[in-house]
Each structure stands twice: as C-alpha cells, then as structure tokens.
Write a structure and sequence with these properties.
Blueprint (H helix, E strand, L loop, with lengths): L20 H13 L3 H18 L9 H12 L15 H5 L19 H12 L4 H21 L6 H11 L24 H6 L1
C-alpha cells in the first residue's frame, strides 16, 4: 500500500534542523523553488515569523533574529537567493559538524570501580598516615561499595571491598572490618534493573 503522507519518517529525507519540523523545512524548500526574488523574499520573511513564534521564550536574546536567519540559510543549504538582513556567512560554522572527540581509554584492572577510583588509590598510596588519609579511604571504600552494587545488580561484599582496597593500594590501606562501618547504601529505583522488569 502506497498512500501519500503515510510513509515513515525513516523513509523521508533527513531534516537539517529537526527542531523546526518537517513543515518548516517544506516551506523553505518551496521558497527556494519560487521564480522571482521578490516572491522568495516575501516567503522567507513569512517563514522567519513562523520560526519566531515557535520559540517565543528566546525573543529577549540579543542575537535572536540573526540566529533565525542563520537557521533559514542552513535549512536552505545556502541555496535561497534573497537579501538577508544579516550576514549569514558565519552560519557555515554552525552547519559544519565538529571533529569527533577521542574517547579516553584507560587501562584499569577492573571496570566496575572506574578510573577515578584507581586515581584515588594512587593518591592514597602516596599520602602520609593521618586523619586526612583515613577520611579519603573511608569515602573511597563507600564509593567502591556503591559502584559494586550498581554493577552487580545490588549484590555487594564488604570483605571483597576491603581486599580490593588493600590490593590496589599495594597494602597501604588496610580496612579493619571489626571497626570500619560502611555507609548505608540503597540503590535508586531507576538504577536497579530488577525494578525495571516489574513495570
């Protein structure tokens, strides 16, 4: 069955600026196809008024009108031959995609603690004994417990955390399980996969 207007968005041409929607894009395409510059100009100004009404909360911004004309130029693929009230040459910078960032891949022995915890282990190894190191060890152990609970779906083992702390600090930090008390940790509902299944 091939009925006009009943096609999927995935079958349609990709929108350049999706925030304005397909109807505004269709208007821009129509404006490009108009034969005279006067018609194109009139159509472009109408489109700008429509775009302005779509985001009234931004009207107070100093460069709001400039942005609208920049967006119009981008949506037209810089093919709309009109007299722009603003210089839209800088819109090219908006249209170009930035270079992808390299994801920092750090080698860590176990992923569930995360790289920040391993940086803290290094810090603990070099700190002199005292109240400050004890407090950092306490905070780190509790964060390890939270991370372990999230990764193991709520299961955790205090002895394992104490063993891992000793192992990864080269024996510098030894939690005394007779005296050390972990903070009470409760997973949020949205982090617990078991709760997601019930919905």
């Amino acid at each position: 069955m091939n009925i006009k207007g009943l096609d999927y968005n995935t079958q349609r041409e990709k929108l350049i600026l999706p925030e304005y929607g397909r109807e505004v894009q269709n208007m821009v395409d129509h404006a490009i196809s108009l034969p005279t510059k006067e018609e194109r100009q009139r159509c472009a100004e109408t489109i700008i008024r429509i775009m302005e009404r779509m985001f009234p909360q931004n009207r107070e911004n100093a460069d709001y009108q400039q942005k609208l004309w920049d967006h119009l130029a981008i949506m037209s693929g810089f093919q709309l031959d009109i007299d722009y009230p603003y210089d839209v040459s800088s819109a090219m910078k908006i249209a170009t995609k930035p270079e992808p960032l390299d994801y920092p891949m750090k080698r860590i022995p176990v992923r569930h603690y995360g790289s920040l915890i391993f940086e803290t282990f290094e810090k603990l190894k070099s700190m002199p004994p005292g109240e400050e190191r004890d407090e950092l060890a306490r905070i780190t152990a509790n964060q390890m417990k939270r991370n372990l609970m999230q990764w193991s779906h709520g299961a955790n083992d205090d002895e394992k955390i104490a063993d891992d702390m000793a192992r990864y600090t080269d024996g510098v930090i030894q939690l005394d399980m007779d005296t050390f008390k972990f903070d009470r940790v409760q997973l949020r509902d949205d982090l617990n996969p078991r709760n997601k299944r019930k919905k």
